[in-house]
Amino acid sequence: MFGLEKSVGQQKPGRSGGLPKMASVGDFNVLSSSIPATKVELSVSCRNLLDRDTFSKSDPICVLYTQAIGNKEWREFGRTEVIDNTLNPDFVRKFIMDYFFEERENLRFDFYDVDSKSPNLSKHDFLGQMFCTLGEIVGSQGSRLEKSIVGIPGKKCGTVIVTAEELGCCRDSVLMQFCANKLDKKDFFGKSDPFLVFLRSNEDGSFTICHKTEVVKNTLNPVWQAFKISVRALCNGDYDRTIKVEVYDWDRDGSHDFIGEFTTSYRELSRGQSQFNVYEVINPKKKGKKKKYVNSGTVTLLSFLIETEVSFLDYIKGGTQINFTVAIDFTASNGNPSQPTSLHYMNPYQLNAYGMALKAVGEIIQDYDSDKMFPALGFGARLPPDGRVSHEFALNGNPQNPYCHGIDGVMEAYYRSLKSVQLYGPTNFAPVINHVARYAASVKDGSQYFVLLIITDGVISDMAQTKESIVNASKLPMSIIIVGVGPAEFDAMEELDGDVVRISSRGKFAERDIVQFVPFRDYIDRSGNHVLSMARLAKDVLAEIPEQFLSYMRVRGIKPLPAPPPYTPPIHVLQTQI
């Protein structure tokens, strides 16, 4: 196949209405235990592609690959349509991907000039490729990434523009209320005790229950309480998908009596209270038996209100910057860096525990930091030339400008520091927390959010001061990630995490949970496959950040700024599909 049946999720029979065909790999993987944060739709356009055709322009197609975490293998995700005779294609077919903030999703876009109907890509002319991460696209201004196409030496291959859009159906909810009139009487001694069951239709014609109302006792004219349900749960974002509503009379023994049913759709319900949303409740058995049967009552929609949940991505698109600061534990309890037993061991062939943790977490978060300049601090060491102990020193040796360029710059400064400072003590966290808090306190309008990554062996000397710093910082736009390396007991770190008991200091509780702790040893693969463990570490470390971020914005009533206007490419008409 040329990716049209297999890798492109086409509209299946059973759905009315026209959503365009979209490149997608199945909507739900039963084996995957993690729920995607959201779905994003990627649109691809190119400018000034190479011209490989002699008598006309190229006929380009885009093929998207994703990279497996373990073996780094590239797997085809999907293909766009082919657009005839253009060097500036704006592909209509989209790629729909699950987006996790906490995972680094490597992407590769390959471009070909299609010369025949063959699905085999080697039969077509290669026009170049572009590598990026999904986070890089989402984190770009307006979630629009423009990059050069590379891959053919000595040739200018043009540029590609990839735009990410979060799918609205992921996060719309609706608040609905229903009432009923003149329902059939089912109970011998009293009136019925009615409740509603909502079911969404599946591709194979079956139905999945998605909501049950409460039971209203002893009435044939019930008014149910308003309820909130996500659009994804109600109809999976397909506004024309059938929604079936069944009406039952509640019985204590669970053998609820069926009163009748009706069908509707999200699109019909969204008209709100009107004559279109008064439904006859039909009992098919009664209808078949009784000639004079009209209905078993009516159900009326009283209200329909759409609520859109704002997401982490809305703030990033609106320009909120994530500022990332690293703080590394240089205390003597880590062991002498020249010894293989040390957590700071300078092994020429392999990253040490600190290097691994720094690289894993840093590579994820750097996609969201627009200038890629990170302040990198150390604590608990004696500094040259006079041997004074410092609890917040610049790894690059420049206290006026502690910024390092990218994670590679931080790694370089870390290794340079190891050669020049003496590991000492005590292990004080409060100074680096207060250092970042000073910056966070100066920008409380939602335009910036600060993340401090502390990498430590977990032996802490200033517990009381650290707790106080965290309680104070919980009012600020900041989060703290603590990665514990080495074999120590991390009870103190677990206490700072505050997942079980909210952290407090002098009787004051933290306003929100801002600390996430993970013990590095839980992520070291027995087989020595560091890559896999790094991916798991980064996932668990960063999974709480979007919710911590949103909790700050909600408490402060800060709404995301509108995103810059989307890029609208010119329309190209000629298209063929193979």
From TrEMBL:
<keyword id="KW-0597">Phosphoprotein</keyword>
<feature type="region of interest" description="Disordered">
    <location>
        <begin position="1"/>
        <end position="20"/>
    </location>
</feature>
<comment type="similarity">
    <text>Belongs to the copine family.</text>
</comment>
<dbReference type="Pfam" id="PF07002">
    <property type="entry name" value="Copine"/>
</dbReference>
<dbReference type="Pfam" id="PF00168">
    <property type="entry name" value="C2"/>
</dbReference>
<dbReference type="InterPro" id="IPR000008">
    <property type="entry name" value="C2_dom"/>
</dbReference>
<dbReference type="GO" id="GO:0005544">
    <property type="term" value="F:calcium-dependent phospholipid binding"/>
</dbReference>
<feature type="domain" description="C2">
    <location>
        <begin position="156"/>
        <end position="279"/>
    </location>
</feature>
<dbReference type="InterPro" id="IPR045052">
    <property type="entry name" value="Copine"/>
</dbReference>
<dbReference type="GO" id="GO:0046872">
    <property type="term" value="F:metal ion binding"/>
</dbReference>
<protein>
    <recommendedName>
        <fullName>Copine-8</fullName>
    </recommendedName>
</protein>
<dbReference type="GO" id="GO:0071277">
    <property type="term" value="P:cellular response to calcium ion"/>
</dbReference>
<dbReference type="GO" id="GO:0005886">
    <property type="term" value="C:plasma membrane"/>
</dbReference>
<dbReference type="InterPro" id="IPR002035">
    <property type="entry name" value="VWF_A"/>
</dbReference>
<comment type="function">
    <text>Probable calcium-dependent phospholipid-binding protein that may play a role in calcium-mediated intracellular processes.</text>
</comment>
<feature type="domain" description="VWFA">
    <location>
        <begin position="323"/>
        <end position="524"/>
    </location>
</feature>
<feature type="domain" description="C2">
    <location>
        <begin position="20"/>
        <end position="147"/>
    </location>
</feature>
<dbReference type="InterPro" id="IPR037768">
    <property type="entry name" value="C2B_Copine"/>
</dbReference>
<dbReference type="InterPro" id="IPR035892">
    <property type="entry name" value="C2_domain_sf"/>
</dbReference>
<dbReference type="InterPro" id="IPR036465">
    <property type="entry name" value="vWFA_dom_sf"/>
</dbReference>
<keyword id="KW-0677">Repeat</keyword>
<keyword id="KW-0106">Calcium</keyword>
<dbReference type="InterPro" id="IPR010734">
    <property type="entry name" value="Copine_C"/>
</dbReference>
<keyword id="KW-0479">Metal-binding</keyword>
